[in-house]
Amino acid sequence: MAVPGFPENPDSQQRSQHQLERLQETLNRAYRSVPFYQAAFKEKNIDPLDVGGLEDLAKLPFTERRHLAENYPYGLFAVPLRDIVRIHTAPGEGQAPSVSGYTAQDLDLWRGLVARALAAAGVNANDIMQIFLDPGLASWGRGYKDGAEELEASVIPLTALPLEKQQMVLKDYKTSVVVTTPSSAEELCQGLYAKGINPNELALKTLIFAGEPITLEDRKVIAGKLHVDTWVHYGLSEVPGPAIAFECKAHEGLHVSEDHFYPEIINPSTGEPAAPGEEGELVLTTLTTRAFPLIRFRTGDRVSYIQEPCSCGRTLCRINWHQERTDNIVVIKGVKVHHAQVMAHISKALGFTPTCCRLLAGKKGDRVGLEVWLGMDETIFSDEIKELEKVVDNVENALIQELGITARVRLAEGEVECAEPGRREVAP
Amino acid sequence: MQAEQISIFIENKAGRLAEVARILSDSDVNIRALSLADTSDFGVLRLIVNHTSRARDVLKDNGFTVRRTSVAAVEVMDQPGGLLAVLDLLNGAGVNIEYMYAYANPPGGNAVMIFRFDRMEDAIELLKNNNMRILEAEELSGI
Amino acid sequence: MLQIRNLKCYYGGIRALSGVSLSVSQGELVALIGANGAGKSTLLQAVCGLLPSWEGEIQFDGKSLTGLKPPAIVARGVSMVPEGRLIFPPLSVLDNLKLGAYLRSRQKDHAGVQQDLEKMLDLFPVLRERARQNAGTLSGGEQQMLAVGRALMANPRLLLLDEPSMGLAPLVVRKIFDTLTELRKTGLTILIVEQNAQAALEIADRGYVLETGRMVLAGEASQLLEDKEVKRAYLGKDYSKFYEGRG
């Protein structure tokens, strides 16, 4: 999408001018309209006018996921509610979800962003695009639907169809593009093979991965099994941006939509900028959103810059998206699950806080879900099996009901060896 | 009237049961009766031992989750219908058995069953009133 | 073409502009809107070298305008139509126009000046009719046309206009703005400062919204016209009434 005053492939001077203008406007609006930002700036004794260059952004405080929950529901909106035309909810941290709002212009903007990312993957009016995402990613589903419609592709929107029906649609409707998460793609793949459907019977040629990073190896496996080209999109669940960064045909890292987001990479422990080329936490500042500006939002995602210019000719900067996270979040089929939030619901279900608990991305039967290892202690323990099974059931039910997460609860002897926080491990 | 049982949580993985046996053996604790209830993921090992407190302490020191539970050790006639007589009695009074298992090498000729009831006191009262013999804790573990 | 970064200006001890950034690309028509006192005119004056001091960076064609006097800036290709026209009433229309080409006349570009004079009289036929009259006898709208013509006589590549609609009847405003659209088609780059947000955004490619010395919004002019915040603040009742007669 062409942004006014921002050519498709700006030189560095045009880019910095555009970004500085949009940044200053965003800061001025946020400071004027959102008490949270005003207070945060004042606490650091900073006025938006102190940001005279992009490098000054580093003086500003970070916004973290917990701030979104703390300002539930509308505390971070920068426009009056009557200007809001859509409200989205993402699982937040702790008990409160994070709520974001969009003006009509914001929705236009997102549609353009997604369309640009899809176009980079070759999606066009001849395509039939099927959106196969976890219901927890419903807001992304809408983003993809709008973006694909902008390109005049035929869209099969996100529905709660069971896997088998999704396969039927995939085959019979001659789907050419599927938008999904790496773990859902794996499920789809296994399902097709189980039903003896040969990939050659499908019209599928493009697979777009959203929601989670994927290793090159896994990607090759899925691409090989389904005979497709694969593309990766990066997004945030807090703002329905499934395509904040996207791959081009070079498939070498993701281009960041710098006309709408200002990216920084920081050292997650110190908060200081990471050295050039070094891996760190991605921090994003919105430049064009009206209703829900985010200033220096810590994404928890681990990325690094690719310094060399891209062979595709785009001058938007590129990042590598790494598997590990910098926070206590487990990603289940693209849905971010925060450790503290799961713990809150587990404690509620148990009636007390367990002494130790470890969360992993795992599987329940064929379904990808959350694996919860509960460390046994004297409060939980009973000499009766049925009591222990009740504990497992209660927690599993609470997580599906409260968070919509399919969980498998396992009881472990004594203290669970706690893995690196948020590390994605798939149980055998 | 109630005997003491310790139960231990163990994950279903190789060597855990042997580990419990080794720890008890090292501490000179003798296992008198044993039952293992399990699911595909985990099990609960229930033991009657000769030194309950010591057994509990050493297992806890070795990182196991241990719990003490009261159970009833009931003498059952070593003849056809012996167990049935006990069960009928309990059933008639509406007492539920949470679990039960047999005692290894009981003193005297008769069998001894370890019971856990939903209403322990009522059950013991009932059994005694019907001339069933309930073994004392010392009787069980002291041998 | 024009890039302003972090412009800060002070009037006495009071800050009129608090770190404003704005850019105009070659061939664009950009509108800067905002309430009275927002600092719009101050920004134009800084670009033209009319302010004694300012901080930040103003670049035209990639070169800094810092420290340049107004004639040097005009020579670079930037020309302004000031607020309130500021024509010279006792002089004839022709002489007023010629004054705009003062620098070129000094450089002996008499042929070029004569050619442009003809162009201006073609562009504004009413000025040809009144070429010999004293400028003071012209109506407000005619004076505004004269002011635009005079600025164009310097043969600028960037034309700045400060509140060109002020005090003019809607039909006259329309005529002036139509002329700006025509000029823009010839490749002239235009930055217009207006309180009359509706009229300015209707002809502009992009717009910026200035609020008490701070830039709060920018975007495509057509989007800003639909923007609820802009509508509330700048396209309010007064202006809609003002424009009721417009097609």
Automatic annotation (TrEMBL), chain A:
Ligase recorded as keyword: yes
Superkingdom to which the source organism belongs: Bacteria
Keywords from the UniProt entry: Ligase
InterPro entries (alphabetical): AMP-bd_C_sf, ANL_N_sf
GO molecular function list: ligase activity
Record keyword Ligase present: yes
SUPFAM superfamilies from the UniProt entry: Acetyl-CoA synthetase-like
PANTHER family documented for this protein: BLR5969 PROTEIN
The protein, known as: Phenylacetate-CoA ligase
Species name: Desulfatibacillum alkenivorans DSM 16219
Organism placement in taxonomy: Bacteria, Pseudomonadati, Thermodesulfobacteriota, Desulfobacteria, Desulfobacterales
UniProtKB/TrEMBL annotation, chain B:
Span of domain ACT: 71-143
Lineage, uppermost ranks: Bacteria, Pseudomonadati, Thermodesulfobacteriota, Desulfobacteria, Desulfobacterales
InterPro entries found in the cross-reference section: ACT-like_dom_sf, ACT_dom, ACT_dom_pair
One Pfam family hit: ACT_8
CDD domains: ACT_Bt0572_1, ACT_Bt0572_2
Lineage top rank: taxon: Bacteria
Protein name: ACT domain protein
From TrEMBL, chain C:
InterPro entries: AAA+_ATPase (IPR003593), ABC_branched_ATPase_LivF/BraG (IPR030660), ABC_transporter-like_ATP-bd (IPR003439), ABC_transporter-like_CS (IPR017871), BCAA_Transport_ATP-bd_LivF (IPR052156), P-loop_NTPase (IPR027417)
SMART domains per record: AAA
UniProt cross-references to CDD domains, sorted A to Z: ABC_TM1139_LivF_branched
Domain of life according to the entry: Bacteria
Domain ABC transporter: 2-237
BP terms from Gene Ontology: L-amino acid transport
Listed Pfam families: ABC_tran
Keywords of the record: Amino-acid transport, ATP-binding, Nucleotide-binding, Transport
GO molecular function per UniProt: ATP binding; ATP hydrolysis activity; branched-chain amino acid transmembrane transporter activity
Family, similarity comment: Belongs to the ABC transporter superfamily.
Record-given protein name: Amino acid/amide ABC transporter ATP-binding protein 2, HAAT family
Native organism: Desulfatibacillum alkenivorans DSM 16219
Upper lineage: Bacteria, Pseudomonadati, Thermodesulfobacteriota, Desulfobacteria, Desulfobacterales
